[in-house]
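question for whoever is on the cluster today: can someone run the full assembly for these? two chains, 584 residues total. i dont have access anymore since they changed the login thing
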Amino acid sequence: MTRFDDYLEQINARLQALLPVSDYDAPAVCDAMRYSIAGGGKRIRPVLLLESCRLCGGNPQDALDFACALEMIHTYSLIHDDLPCMDDDDMRRGKPACHIAFGEASAVLAGDALLTEAFHAAAACAFAKQHPDRALEAIALLASLAGAGGMVGGQAIDLQSEGQAVSLSRLRLMDKLKTGALMKAACAVGAVLAGAEKAQRDALERYADNLGQAFQITDDILDVTSDSQTLGKPVGSDAEQQKSTYVSLLGLETAKQKAADCTAAALQALATFGDEAAFLRKTAERLLKRTS
Amino acid sequence: MTRFDDYLEQINARLQALLPVSDYDAPAVCDAMRYSIAGGGKRIRPVLLLESCRLCGGNPQDALDFACALEMIHTYSLIHDDLPCMDDDDMRRGKPACHIAFGEASAVLAGDALLTEAFHAAAACAFAKQHPDRALEAIALLASLAGAGGMVGGQAIDLQSEGQAVSLSRLRLMDKLKTGALMKAACAVGAVLAGAEKAQRDALERYADNLGQAFQITDDILDVTSDSQTLGKPVGSDAEQQKSTYVSLLGLETAKQKAADCTAAALQALATFGDEAAFLRKTAERLLKRTS
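^ ran it for u. tokens below:
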């Protein structure tokens, strides 16, 4: 079993254990939470968190509940993002979006509950009892990067930019917050939990920043070059919604080059870790070449 | 200045300091957060938190950021509760609801951001650095009582009960989660931050449980007996929506008696604190006699 598969198995099993069971009289919200968490997805963020912890000398086991918390936050953001009043997307990861499957109200509540349970998982885990100082720093970091100055801020800029021509610098800021913030959270939280030195954490944050940008550019490219079956969601939606993307602003070839440049910069940031960073290097290369 | 006014002034000033400033390109979300926080409200939960901390021998100053976190969680829940897909209320505290003033998408995001910033405020405060173990326990408690097994669970039951006849025991469970959970969080978090003994915390939780029930019954009574100007929201909405309430299930007089009984039980729970609990006693009596 590869290390990636091993991480994946641990994350998926632990997510199942952490999510609430519908033992009360309103099962719809618990079912909706489990539906969206089980919806698949690449689990990139929690894997990055575990590996960042390992790379800085920590035990990935110690970071598992934080990794799950990060995936819960990512999943809540997708549920709310798909709502009719937001992006109004009916499909997510090849399945009906949460609000299509469970109704809008349950989707709002499922998102709220996932965000709340994420912080419960982080604060209540065994490692937090052993290293409360590191756990608190990690929780503050997670909240800061997920909040108004991070991911939610990025979604707000996205909303406000709808139907408008957007400059490349604004697109970059939006993606840095909307996509990059949780990538950065993955690497930074992993480092903090491991008690990493500042240089290690800085290197991982540079990696995450470039990885996040390459990831978003690749998303924009796939919306043009892929097909909906491979992607699990409609293609061409950016053009249809007249959204500014890296492809619309730079052209397809330049966008591809930029994604490759960002990936190269991400690899470069890992130099300080030597051969130990092979897994993170492979992850960056794999994400650049992904087809969905 | 009374202790209540003193607490109120501290809470309101600190909330202003903790909320993000719209220094980026999407001010709508920050403005919406501030709008809803500034919307008034009785600040009962944060006041209870500060006083519970003091009563257990702690310094209310140490608990201030947790008190603000609790108020942010309460406010986010009101914003999401008022959304068209939830209760669809246009007015809140005598002003247009957040989604009326800022649009639905910004209201969803403002709620998400308030919930996220709440955990940031709690994890990043100065007291958390001094007592990381207590802070972590308090964060876990807050998340647990606000999540699927607490407040959000109560809202889910509420949703599922719409247009249905509801038994008294189900109404009690719903209110215990929807309203009671954050009241309990206020008292329990205050106690935990002060390093309270188990007996103290148990007594405060009994107080909170009864106070929460009296509070909800009084809400149901005011929906029948008050006028919309005094209340700041439409009256008679429960009957209009054919919602089961303590008044519809018990009748007005029995509901009044039950609110008084719960208040008496709340006072009784404070016996162990002696005269020091005068403030909490007065709070319970004031809430029973409130007109809005």
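summary bc i know u wont read the tokens: The first strand of chain B starts at residue 91 and ends at 92. The radius of gyration of chain B is 18 Å.
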